[in-house]
Amino acid sequence: MARAIICRSWPRRILAPRSTLHCHNECGHHARHNNVIAQPQDEHGAEPPSDAIVIFGVTGDLARRKIFPALYAMVSKGTLQVPVIGVASSKLTVTQLHERVADSLNHAGTARDPAVVERLLSLLTYVSGNYNDPATFSTIKAALAGTRRPVHYLAIPQSAFETVITSLGAAGLAENARVIVEKPFGRDLASARELNRIAQSHFPERSIFRIDHYLGKEAIMNLLYFRFANSFLEPIWNRNFVASVQIILAENFGVAGRGAFYETAGALRDVVQNHLFQIVALLAMEPPPRRGYGAVHGEKAGVFQAMRPLVPEDLVRGQYAGYRNEPDVAPDSDVETFCALRLFIDSWRWAGVPWYLRAGKGLAQTTAEVLVQLKPPPQALFADSAPADGRANHFRFRLAPTSSIALAARVKRGGKGFVGDQRELYLCEDGVGDELPYERLLGDAMVGDGALFSDQQAVEAAWAVVEPVLVNHSPAVGYEQGTWGPHEADALTAGDGGWHQPAPEKDCP
Questions:
Q1: Mean pLDDT lowest for which of 147-156, 161-170, 443-452?
Q2: Would you say 310 and 471 are in contact if contact means Cβ atoms under 8 Å apart?
Q3: 297 included as an active-site residue
Q4: Can you tell me the distance from the alpha carbon of 223 to that of 405, in angstroms, rounded to the nearest whole number?
């Protein structure tokens, strides 16, 4: 499909509470943009920032891949100047932990300034201990001496959440503190409710940050900004003009040594119930009635509550060939590495519009994309009004690996005949200078800004949608790696022109 590139960038910082935006509009004039959604003080009053970070699971894979590079970025920009206390059961010295951090930064390619690495390491100390031992939390308390408002980051398996949160409360470490909990928050509706009960018995809701790093990505934040910063969308953003919506989150690699984790999760729990549902909520939500992240949370929860609970006929589960040979995977595993589903939102705006979601590993590309398919004109005034492939105009949002927005429209060819081609008006973001998702989310949690986190109401409502098919489902069907998943998933979209397969996309010019 031909494209016309009409813009290269848009404002980067959309929900950040501590900055203004700078951009150049399409005419080349400099513009300034104030924050549109965030500002925790809008609703709760200004709260002091956290004065220490405690990271449980500091020797784990998440810390190595994501958290350490984020801390480095924060130190390099001067936004992290407080003590960082790592906690894990590994018997390490502080020097050995520092070596791990330096190795992580070198592997990630982020340790460009040795002075910044040294400043980060100077903030980092280590507590080794068992999470079931009260003495571990006494040691943490001693390490926090002189601080008053720590933030506790639980980068640990969810099976340890209850133990750590309860022990923090028993040790007096929850007072004036915040807690960050990694997704998935629970394994089903009942466990999510129980975790919420436990967390809220020690921390107020405004101090609980349920982290989904996908919400910290610039392209995801731009969905919210693009929808509500532009008035031309509202008249067509509904069931009268939208035929269907497709969302895909694909990875071209397997479980990459995380077989033990994936055996407890699967694609439905790991990706669909959180990442993809959050994208659906941003696309489907009603305009917030006011500024403030509480208003956004309320509208997103309303989308989840309007979602029709899934039934087995709306779900196809797949498993890539070779998954059962991965380390720590059962030889007869039925865990899905691919998930495709058909979803309906029973609201005035979206009644009858199907939402098609796909997520999987071992697929043809690593990409994330949204296609909002518009209905064709009601009258065929031209012979080619309906394209041969069945697709009319659409909005396309590329979320990864590049970030872009495209609008497809039909344009007449030169000559006397009234025939044309569908072309895309295309806006591309180069991503240079974007904050890392964990950098943004850690910084926001430290100042009490919950705009990019999930609240209790939304978490429980999302689990209620997938609850009927967590156990009651068909067996996972096989598919070859390097494909777009099992052919059985094609039946879901057969009535709407089939699946949209993202094309490889070049970097921004």
A1: 443-452
A2: no
A3: no
A4: 10
